[in-house]
Amino acid sequence: MSACRTTISALALAALFASADAGRAGEVVVDRHYDSAALGRQANYSTVRPDKAAGTLPVVYLLHGRDSSAAEWLRLGNVAETLDRLVAEKRIPPVMIVLPDAGNGWYVDGPAMAAETAIVRDLAADVERKHDVRRDREGRAIAGNSMGGFGAVRIALAYPERYVAAASMSGAFWTRIKPDTQIDAAMEARLARVFSGAFGTPFDPKFFVARDPEQVALRLPSGAPHPALYLTASRGDRFRLAEEQDVMELRLKAAGLAVTSAVTEGDHDWGTWAAAFPDVLEFLGGKFKPQ
Questions:
Q1: CA distance 272 to 252
Q2: Cβ atoms 225, 137 nearer than 8 A
Q3: Helices 270-285 & 79-88 angle (0-180, nearest 10)
Q4: Interval 190-212: pLDDT, tens
Q5: What is the pTM of this model?
Q6: Checking DSSP bridges between strand 228-234 and strand 259-264, what pairing results, if any?
Q7: What is d(CA 112, CA 213) in angstroms, rounded to the nearest whole number?
Q8: Which residues of 62-101 are buried (b: 16+ CB within 10 A; e: fewer)?
Q9: Tell me, what's the pLDDT at 31?
């Protein structure tokens, strides 16, 4: 794998991705690499810093969905433009956004790959070694869409000492799966396509449920800090994820967590996530505390 790194201005990025806003001046760096012992290989990530940002910045890890990548967040999610605008409007403090390319591992340590450890340990270590970012809980947050929404919430709950807040956009929580769910051949074929072996082959419902956000929340140590949680989904989501969100919100609240939620217009698509991202970023930015 090439170790080259490409640094491009936001103007060049806008031209490359045909962005509607070609005038922003923040820094976007793609094709960064980090060595992941968990994965046994190098992995990629991109970073976005707002225009004229200086000093040690809080960091937001932004996770992608299934069959997606950091490039789609940059190209279709308007990450750089949204970040610059919210900072310029003083709606959030300057932050660095880190976008990993994580494959289809569902951000868990499972039979397919150690995707959770790669993000929490290996990526974070590389980011904090190479960049002037906060290394404390109050300066670190995580968010994602679809598969990434599932991953962001469960990682924040699994490591409450590391993340002050987390957000899910159209989180694929699969709340209807129970430990004793009976899986026939047709359902197994669908689950194999969706989960790519992240929860076993064949799919193991007990393994999945033990790692879903509700069960992780129920295992939080007494007195542990709880990350602030924000869930958003669209009522027109083709996978009915607004309903999934309602169920997960009730379960997390029953586990004693504070949850803020929103239901928007749209579908399970980039237009919906790009529209939701400003509110997500404002929620996360509001949870960072001064050093």
A1: 24
A2: yes
A3: 40
A4: 999 999 999 999 999 999 999 99
A5: 0.92
A6: parallel
A7: 20
A8: bbbbbebbbbbbbbbbbbbbbbbbbbeeeebbbbbbbbbb
A9: 87
